[in-house]
Structures are given as structure tokens and as C-alpha cells.
Amino acid sequence: MIQGRLHSIETFGSVDGPGTRFVIFLKGCAMRCRYCHNVDTWDPNTTNLVTADELLDKAERYRDYWGKDGGITVSGGEPLLQIDFLLDLFKKAKARNISTCIDTALQPFTREAVYFSKFEELMRYTDLLLVDIKVIDPMMHQKLTEHPNDNILDGIRYLSSIHKPIWIRHVLVPSWTDNDDYLYRTRAFIETLDNVEKIEVLPFHKLGEYKWESLGIPYLLKAVDPPSPERVKNAEDILLGRKKQQN
After folding, report:
1. Per residue in 5-28, pLDDT tens?
2. N or C: which end of the chain has fewer CB within 10 A?
């Protein structure tokens, strides 16, 4: 029996995909994003183990609220670290005619066996992915997350090649990701894709700072303030192609 390592659930998610979503937060993440607001999901260890059927039975209690667009979204942490559980969950969700969505940074993505064959199969049962592009510059990405981004960008290209719909999300962090050069390079990358349905700029906030402190992890962005409305609009204009780069 396949079990998932569960962190928590949200029964009425309104920002985690189309419609109203039953959001499942799984435990475990290899990235160490300096602005993470779910730092309590990093550690994969948990006593809260669940089966796909247990989660889907609970989710269907709220089905009347989903409307035609709602369904389940699996977030984290990084849900793709639990790909066997995801595959079991989404197969059973599709058997129940439930819309499926993954909120991911694609950090585990690889074209190497056996992971890639599992990923290919998972995509057959996935309707949508919400994909974080942390920052396009590889050196800054390493500094921000402690991981490279070449395989992440390759994963996004693969999703485009199979025409799998994605929403791109970008957290705007002053002095880290709020950089016009990075934003224009991100826009140029987006223009090579044909599966992007939506682009969202998420302003940096410190709402998760208390979690770092409670876990005894130094919070390194104490001196960073949220971006101004003007900088958020600037990022949106660039990423949505409304503002062209000047030569």
C-alpha cells in the first residue's frame, strides 16, 4: 500500500489553480529558498501518513463547492519528491472524475530512468501544473535556493513539448529576483514555450518568518522589505510582454 507523507490540507483553496481547490500539502523539499513560507514542510519525516483513497474520500466531501473548474491541488514542500504516491493519487482521482493540479518547483525533474518514465505516466493524469520559476539566472538561483536550475528549465521545456498546460509563478524579492535583466530573460524563456496559460507575480512577504524562528533556522531576509506596487507592476508588465526591453 502506497502512503503519502502529509503535512496538512486546505479545504477551500482559492489561489492554487482554477476554481475552488482541495489543497494537499506534502512533506519534504530539497530546495532551501531563502524566502520560503512553508519551511515547516522541508523535513520529509512525519507520523502523518495517508493513502490516496483516504485523501480523496475527504476531498469529495467538499465537491459541491468546486464548481466546474475546481478539484484537487497537491503542493508542499515539493510534491514531485513523492512521485509514486502522486501517481497513485492522480490515477484514483481521475477514476473519480476529479481535476488534478500540481504546485511544483520541478526541482526533482530528470530525464534519467526510472524517474522520467514515472513522470511521463504522471502527466497523463495531470490536468495542470503551477510551476515556480525562482530566478532565471543560474548563479543567483544557486545562491537563492542552494540548487541549480538547468534541470528545472529542462522540465518546463518538456512540459511545453507535450503541450501540458502550466501557470508560471514568480516570487518578486527585492535585491534577489526583482531585477529587470532577470525578468526580461525570464520573458524571453517564456516566449519559447507554447503551454503557458497564466503568469503570476507573487510579491515577497514575511508571513512565514515565525516558522523559521520556531524551528531555530536563521531567517536571512529580515532586512528585505516587500516590493513596492510599482515594482510589482513593472515585473508583471515585463513577464506578460507588455513592456519591451530597450536597446
Report:
1. 999 999 999 999 999 999 999 999
2. C
Domains and CATH numbers, the chain: 4-239 (3.20.20.70)
Cell numbers representing residue 206 in the block: 514575511
Burial class (CB in 10 A: 0-12, 13-18, 19+), 63: middle
Residues 153/73/117/164 CA torsion (nearest 10 deg):
-60
Q: Choose among 92, 86, 87: nearest CA to 74.
A: 86
pLDDT tens digits, one per residue of 179-209: 999 999 999 999 999 999 999 999 999 989 9
* pLDDT tens-place string over residues 50-78: 999 999 999 999 999 999 999 999 999 99
pTM: 0.96
Q: Which residue type is seen at 2?
A: I
Type of residue numbered 212:
W
Residue 58 CA to chain centroid, in angstroms? Answer: 23
The distance from CA 41 to its chain's CA centroid, rounded to whole angstroms, is 13
Whole-number Å distance between alpha carbons of 4 and 242: 42
For residue 166, which of 106, 231, 245 has the smallest C-alpha distance? 106
Contacts of 145 (CB under 8 A, 6+ apart): 31, 32, 33, 34, 107, 134
